[in-house]
């Protein structure tokens, strides 16, 4: 007998399978378009199977949920993501690439977690698998749980709780009614940005298939799966600007995009995170441009260098990780600046990775408040974010997350250092945990990953999903109390 909790989890998993099957239809069509019938059979079989099983399963395990606790939300999120990763690994394993099980899982995990890393060069990867990866990038950037909510009965009661286990960050949804409207508007915005980027790229000179693949992968800040190294050095300026602009939009808080759509510009001005994100990008670009100017005596090329540097900085700060210029020739000081900023990453509630700007702001204000109370012990000075006083529980969660993030990074680097040198281990760990996929001065290309053992790839996969799901859902499955039954679901 399947209890209520398992029934709910299974319903969400099967709904996600059905959505996955529907979203890889373009990959099947591209196989036909380019006469790749081997991959057509491979991907087409997965497409039909997941559609059928997903549709039947979500009907069989249909359950009307009106209340649930956080434990079930976390369980639903982690099991749904792991199921999607295992299913997506099947077409990679059955393809003509001759990938091992571990390598297939690695490609799948990188796809879903929007990590711009691959074991296979773009020239070797069939067009159908490129489209499959881009589709998974798009779903992973928005969140498969977010999409699966459409098939959840009375989803407006539990959707907010469930979404915040997949896309964590300061909340902006204050009621079920507001959530329903906001949820639908967010989907429309994400789809609109993707379609707009597709049109712009095609007008700028990319063919239809490259425009579609690039749009799906770039708006989710997962790099460019149809290019080796995500290398767009050879593209014209218009394409570079378009890619950089939409990578920036994908890295900012979704609430900002929602407020723009509602024309609430004053509310946008109150938010400190977008200001921090923008200032970080501009200041870092100016500093690196000055370093390049004085190091290489660039003279009249300073403005061109600033434009190129700005687009490259957006790439790393959005955790997209594509390559605009040869960063391997940058001075060590420039590399150090970028690496430190990669820890922060993008904004909260975005498709980007990292600690997130909102948490850094809260941590900084907590530190200054603590120092202030050391001087004025009886003073009452609450920590505020966007003018709103924060509760102690919120402060603890934000600061604890930063500690856990750094500890996870160090443990990941330690595990990787068994087979790699220290510098590579540290760089790879932060690149995987922030879902950037590449680090400054070096990109994770097929040749470089040849030196990585199966154990290293498993470690990298753990870091990828931990970074994408913001660590907590992944770590909780290792706690005994997480698996204890409760009745807090109706």
UniProtKB/TrEMBL annotation:
GO function terms (MF aspect): monoatomic cation transmembrane transporter activity
PANTHER family: TRK SYSTEM POTASSIUM UPTAKE PROTEIN TRKG-RELATED
InterPro entries, A to Z: Cat_transpt (IPR003445)
Chief place where the protein resides: membrane
Subcellular location per the Swiss-Prot or TrEMBL entry: Cell membrane
Record field: transmembrane: 12-35, 41-61, 73-94, 138-158, 187-208, 237-259, 279-296, 335-355, 400-418, 458-483
One GO BP annotation of this record: metal ion transport
Any one GO CC term of the record: plasma membrane
Protein name according to UniProt: TrkH family potassium uptake protein
Family designation: Belongs to the TrkH potassium transport family.
Superkingdom, taxonomy of origin: Bacteria
Alphabetically ordered keywords of this record: Cell membrane, Ion transport, Membrane, Transmembrane, Transmembrane helix, Transport
Coiled coil: none
Membrane topology: Multi-pass membrane protein
């Amino acid at each position: 007998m399947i209890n209520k909790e398992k029934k709910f989890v299974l319903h969400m998993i099967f709904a996600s399978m059905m959505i996955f099957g529907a979203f890889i239809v373009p990959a099947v069509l591209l196989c036909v378009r380019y006469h790749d019938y081997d991959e057509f059979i491979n991907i087409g079989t997965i497409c039909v199977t997941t559609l059928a099983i997903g549709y039947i399963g979500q009907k069989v395990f249909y359950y009307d949920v009106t209340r649930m606790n956080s434990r079930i939300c976390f369980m639903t999120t982690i099991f749904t993501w792991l199921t999607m990763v295992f299913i997506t690994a099947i077409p990679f394993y059955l393809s003509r690439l001759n990938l091992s099980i571990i390598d297939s899982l690695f490609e799948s995990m990188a796809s879903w977690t929007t990590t711009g890393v691959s074991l296979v060069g773009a020239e070797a990867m069939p067009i159908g698998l490129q489209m499959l990866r881009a589709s998974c990038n798009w779903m992973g950037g928005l969140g498969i749980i977010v999409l699966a909510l459409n098939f959840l009965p009375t989803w407006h009661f539990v959707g907010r709780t469930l979404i915040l286990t997949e896309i964590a960050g300061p909340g902006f949804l204050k009621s079920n009614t507001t959530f329903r409207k906001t949820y639908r508007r967010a989907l429309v915005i994400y789809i609109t940005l993707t379609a707009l980027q597709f049109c712009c790229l095609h007008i700028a000179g990319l063919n239809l298939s490259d425009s579609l693949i690039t749009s799906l992968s770039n708006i989710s800040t997962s790099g460019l799966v149809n290019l080796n190294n995500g290398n767009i050095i050879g593209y014209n300026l218009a394409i570079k600007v378009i890619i950089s602009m939409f990578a920036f939009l994908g890295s900012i808080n979704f609430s900002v995009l929602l407020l723009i759509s509602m024309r609430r510009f004053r509310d946008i001005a109150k938010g400190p995170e977008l200001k921090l994100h923008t200032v970080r990008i501009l200041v870092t670009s100016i500093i690196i441009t000055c370093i390049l100017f004085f190091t290489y005596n660039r003279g009249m090329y300073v403005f061109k260098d600033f434009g190129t540097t700005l687009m490259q900085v957006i790439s790393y700060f959005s955790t997209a990780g594509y390559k605009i210029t040869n960063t391997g020739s940058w001075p060590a000081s420039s590399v150090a600046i970028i690496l430190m900023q990669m820890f922060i990453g993008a904004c909260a509630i975005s498709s980007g990775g990292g600690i997130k700007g909102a948490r850094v702001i809260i941590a900084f204000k907590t530190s200054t408040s603590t120092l202030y109370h050391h001087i004025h012990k009886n003073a009452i000075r609450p920590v505020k974010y966007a003018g709103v006083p924060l509760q102690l529980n919120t402060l603890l969660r934000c600061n604890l997350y930063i500690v856990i993030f750094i500890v996870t990074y160090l443990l990941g680097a330690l595990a990787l250092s068994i087979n790699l040198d220290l510098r590579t281990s540290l760089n790879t760990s932060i690149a995987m945990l922030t879902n950037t996929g590449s680090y400054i001065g070096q990109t994770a290309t097929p040749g470089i990953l040849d030196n990585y053992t199966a154990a290293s790839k498993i470690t990298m996969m753990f870091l990828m999903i931990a970074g994408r799901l913001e660590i907590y859902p992944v770590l909780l499955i290792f706690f005994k109390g997480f698996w204890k039954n409760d009745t807090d679901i109706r």
